[in-house]
Amino acid sequence: MFSSPYPQILKNAEFNIKIKNLDRILLISILLLGGFLRFYQLMNEGLSYDEIVMINLTETTFDQVLYNASWGRPPTLLFFGYIWIKLLGASTFTVRLLSAFSGLLAIACTYRLGREFFSKEVGLVSSFLMSLSVFHIFFSQDFRYYGLLSFIVPLCVLAYWNALKYKSWLRFAVLSLVSIIAFYTHTHAVFVLIALGLHFIINWSKRSPEVKYKWFTSQLLILLGTYFGISIIVSDLFGPTLDGTSLSPLGHLDETPSFALPFYTGLITYTFKGTRLVDLLMLVPFAAIAMGIVTCLIKRFQFDHFSFVRINDIYKLIRLPIGETKSTVTLLLLWLILPLFLPVLLSYIVGPMYLPRYTIGALPAFYLVVGVLMVRMKTIFPQSAVISAFLILVAPSLFQFYQADVKDQWPEIANYVGSRMQETDGIIFLSVNNEQPEQVENAFKYYSPVSIQTCEVSSLYFNGSEQFASQIENCRESFDRLWVVMRPTSDNQVDFIELFTQLNLDQSYTLVESQSYLNVATYLIE
Asked: CA-CA to 339 of 20 to 30 Å: which in 8, 172, 446, 479?
């Protein structure tokens, strides 16, 4: 894809200029592609529950933003979001625009790192692959921490690389600042910071005393700057949880992840999010056929100086080519492996702390590794053949992403209830997650077309207990009918009728109607 069809002309100076322009054209094309995929259908779906929570946290006074940060909410997005909303407003389009721009900058950073680490070709291939990542597109259209994190983390790695390259106090100061910002963007950025620290220590003997001193000073600044966040993590480990409001995810995840999950995250979720593994495997023969056809066409028409596989080509694929150092590869592998696997290991020691979206900081490293392998594969297959096979594999994921509903359907549930609600009806908001009922109520009211009368019920009692039954009875005395709006998790759907059967309520209740949408459901009882 990125190689010239006429290598024999490379000696011509004029053609060399054209090649440089071609690199720029390809990079601009990749950024345009990535931007299109991230801005396309940005307003197609309503805001999700988590996005509405973020708007409530940022569309407020600066003092309230500071208060939210003091309770452990990652402050980077709070402050950026506060300024962004003040400038552009809090519409669905404007708030997601921040994540979309962050995702686009993440692609640009991936190219820059690929060029710095290896070559322009690796940078172009890696950024192209990342531009098509459904996983990254999803969070680039989501007003949460992860789109911003996908940009801040590679920026932090680039700052580290430049600090080692230029060895100036200013570069190390920038490293400290960007590292602190990354940590406060999301706690799991700490695993990338650990990877950078380990990389420096592994190559300790190669560093000059001056560089060691500057690096050590930068680490002290990072520790000082992250002291507040570290204290919250310690409190989260040894103190009471904060009902989902903590900077650290410790204490409010329920399941300990399998050691197979990081492999699945990297190999499947990062690139093929939303595609079932069995469907992906069914596409492999078609991708192989496409690769063979393109290879034969190139061989037939001599579009490239390509010859079929030789014995030593396999060795060329795995060995370090000229210009690459073990130090660079070590940095890339540490950046990829630690954020994916260390949280799983710690989950078995201190408590569950792994979700695939927490690892988005490792996404650029993953595509840089894949980019290196794909560039080397041109010694075996033409690069255009490999790219063609990749496009066949990723196309269904992209198509399904833009066709299917992927966000919580709060507009739909609010319109459904609003169109059927009577003046004597009341609403109860429940959740089987860790959030408070007030947050579920805020998400519903964000799209509710009518004013509603609510009845307070604590999620803490949503377990078939007598306290919960008593609260339901009190609500029933105030209204003729009750609408129950719930946000069950996908793996913990609640049978509402069965729940009420278990409550042993004093009065009998009839389920009049129910309606379920993506990640939200409602029941009408009387």
From this structure: 172
pLDDT value, residue 480: 81
SS3 assignment, position 256? coil
* Half-sphere exposure in the Cβ direction for 50 (13 Å, CA): 16
Q: Would you state the pLDDT for residue 429?
A: 84
CA 350 to each of CA 122, 241, 253, 256, 342: distance values in angstroms, whole numbers, following the listed order:
38, 14, 12, 10, 12
Mean predicted confidence (pLDDT) in 100-110: 96
H or E element at residue 523: strand 520-525
pLDDT tens string 348-405: 888 888 999 999 999 999 999 999 988 888 777 788 888 888 999 999 999 999 998 8
* 74 in Cβ contact with 187 (< 8 Å): yes
CA separation for the pair 245, 82 (Å, rounded):
18
The whole-model pTM stands at 0.88
Report the C-alpha gap between 524 and 329 in whole angstroms: 59
| pLDDT above 80 (res 521) | yes
Alpha-carbon span 516 to 494, nearest angstrom:
12
The structure tokens 């060795």 sit at: 315
- 2 Cβ contact partners less than 8 Å away, ≥ 6 residues apart: 26, 121, 124, 125, 383
* pLDDT at residue 505, as a whole number: 53
Burial (Cβ within 10 Å: 0-12, 13-18, ≥19) of residue 423: exposed
Going by C-alpha positions, the residue among 275, 341, 41, 261 that lies closest to residue 135 is 275
pLDDT tens-digit readout, 407-466 = 989 999 999 998 888 888 888 887 766 667 778 888 898 998 777 777 777 655 555 556
CB atoms inside a 10 Å sphere around CB 525: 19
Candidate from 240-249, 405-414, 477-486, 487-496 with smallest mean pLDDT: 240-249
Give me the pLDDT at residue 308, please.
47
Determine how β-strand 520-525 pairs with β-strand 511-517.
Answer: antiparallel
Evaluated on CA atoms 88, 89, 93, 97, the torsion sign reads: positive
Residue 142, SS3 per DSSP: coil
E-state strands within 377-519 = 425-431, 454-455, 481-487, 511-517
Q: Where does residue 12 rank: exposed (0-12), middle (13-18), buried (19+ CB within 10 A)?
A: exposed
| H/E element, 525 | strand 520-525
Q: Is-contact 103 137, C-beta < 8 A?
A: yes
